[in-house]
Amino acid sequence: MKPEQIKLIAHRTISAILFILSVVAVAICAVEEYYSIVILLGLLSLLFLLFLINAFTFSFKRYDLDGHEVSVYCGAYHHYIDIDGERFDEHNTILSYTPIHMSCEFEGHYIEVTISTFNMVAMKVDNKLYKKLKRP
Asked: Is 0.90 surpassed by the pTM of this model?
């Protein structure tokens, strides 16, 4: 398993645990009738829910291109194209309301990656959609 995949699983797991713990804390405080704390923890639960939803938009895809592994990572603020462990293009952003376009040339192939606002990945090789995912 690649470090990027471990990072994605860790983000999702931590976000889910924080959300569940905050919901349980709200339930306990509601039973004990601590309503001011319930309101604060309820807001905190909504924040953790947003983190959880955001964590599930992260993406990591691996493609097989003529025996080479092309990896595309889309995190919260960091996006990049990696071919056989070498970084070819990257894009860092806090928020992006438009799709992110990255491209590179590799062994005579023009590789273009488009990442949508919700981190959906589309890769084109020589201006043709490429869907040959690498299996683990």
From this structure: no
